[in-house]
Design goal:
four-stranded parallel sheet; 13 helices; elongated
Length: about 400
């Protein structure tokens, strides 16, 4: 669980405005758990945190939002990405991939729940179920703001966060900009405030709403643009397999072409249709020049296995390419080490294709050796691709 490190120093804030430190987090969580309304920061906007198990909190939040002519759809906010699966344990493979890549961050997911997950969510939400689960969809998000993550964790109840804006002021980007109708009362005030406290996390990182993505089985769509644009969401949806060697003209492109063929056969589609299933297979070279063709022998060697390497163009293994890959297979242990030097965090997803030995380099050895390497690659890939769930 992320620590609640102080974002703003606990200077002389009014008692109803809480600093973003351990004391402020504990107080905010206590209030929320007790059914009180607390304004909290996220990386996008400030919002009102509502304990969905509290009829009092839901009614108070509805009253605030209805004054601005809007009814609040309850968007559940969780402390960490893994909590999404607590609500949607049968989330599709594509959905899990999007959640893993986008969260924590400025993306909310509207997930079509399976019947079993829907029943479990209804039990968990109680009286708030009908207001939260609309047409079988649950909307959920994990904010990328450690202080609020800790508040959600310590509250220990289902929490929705709705925007603190009004019709005249749609979004709030810092505590000082809260509309007058939502201002927390100063110490000693005799006027009840609609909000019991506000956590001051300073100005928000993005001055824009989160992106809303709908997931229904293995399909998704962006239904509200926001911080993350649709082009990036599309890239997040892709499962990227990357094969690495030095020059990117024989072994790594051979492996990529053969993997493309095997994956297409597994899914019973044509290789050209893999991208429609959000599967991207690439190869690159750690010391490659851009724009070179695969060797003639490599092209011929994969052809006998139904793979096509005729259009291959070499490319260097950039840090961006390595970071975006979901799986990286190297031809040698030395190249795995080199990948990890470039991207130290890539260890869990980077593997030597042959767990027991390096794949021999056929360059300059003649067509027969290329054929033998192609056959060896096919056998290795069949084993490795059994581990890939698409």
């Amino acid at each position: 669980m992320p620590s609640s490190s102080s974002v703003v120093p606990p200077h002389s804030l009014p008692p109803s405005v809480l600093a973003c430190d351990s004391k402020g987090v504990a107080r905010a969580a206590q209030l929320i758990k007790g059914g009180k309304l607390v304004v909290v920061p996220t990386e996008t906007v400030y919002g009102i945190a509502v304990n969905l198990l509290s009829a009092e909190a839901r009614a108070a939040a509805k009253k605030i939002k209805s004054a601005g002519g809007a009814s609040p759809p309850w968007v559940i906010h969780v402390a960490q990405p893994e909590d999404v699966l607590g609500w949607a344990p049968h989330l599709s493979t594509l959905g899990r991939r999007l959640v893993a890549k986008a969260l924590p961050g400025p993306v909310a997911f509207q997930i079509k729940l399976t019947d079993a997950d829907l029943a479990a969510a209804r039990t968990r939400l109680g009286a708030a179920a009908d207001e939260t689960l609309q047409d079988g969809f649950l909307t959920i998000r994990c904010p990328d703001f450690s202080c609020t993550q800790q508040v959600l964790f310590e509250a220990g109840v289902p929490v929705a966060i709705i925007g603190a804006g009004t019709a005249s002021q749609p979004a709030v980007f810092e505590v000082g900009d809260l509309p007058e109708s939502l201002r927390v009362a100063d110490a000693g005030s005799q006027t009840p405030a609609p909000i019991d406290a506000a956590v001051d996390g300073g100005p928000t990182r993005y001055r824009r709403s989160s992106t809303l993505v709908r997931i229904e089985g293995e399909k998704f769509s962006v239904i509200r643009p926001g911080v993350i644009d649709e082009r990036i969401i599309q890239k997040m949806a892709d499962f990227n397999i990357l094969f690495i060697y030095s020059g990117n003209t024989c072994r790594s492109p051979m492996a990529a072409a053969l993997a493309t063929r095997l994956l297409a056969d597994k899914l019973r589609i044509e290789p050209s249709e893999l991208t429609l299933r959000h599967v991207v297979v690439q190869s690159a070279g750690l010391h490659a020049n851009r724009g070179l063709r695969a060797t003639v022998e490599a092209v011929e060697a994969v052809k006998s296995h139904g793979a096509d390497l005729s259009s291959h163009i070499s490319q260097p293994a950039t840090i961006d390419l390595l970071r975006r890959a979901d799986l990286i297979y190297t031809m040698t242990e030395a190249h795995r080490d080199e990948v990890l030097e470039l991207v130290p965090g890539a260890g869990p997803k980077t593997h030597r294709l042959d767990p027991d030995a390096d794949v021999d380099d056929p360059i300059g050895a003649g067509q027969q050796v290329y054929e033998e390497v192609a056959g060896h690659l096919v056998n290795l890939l069949k084993g490795r691709l059994r581990e890939v769930h698409l």
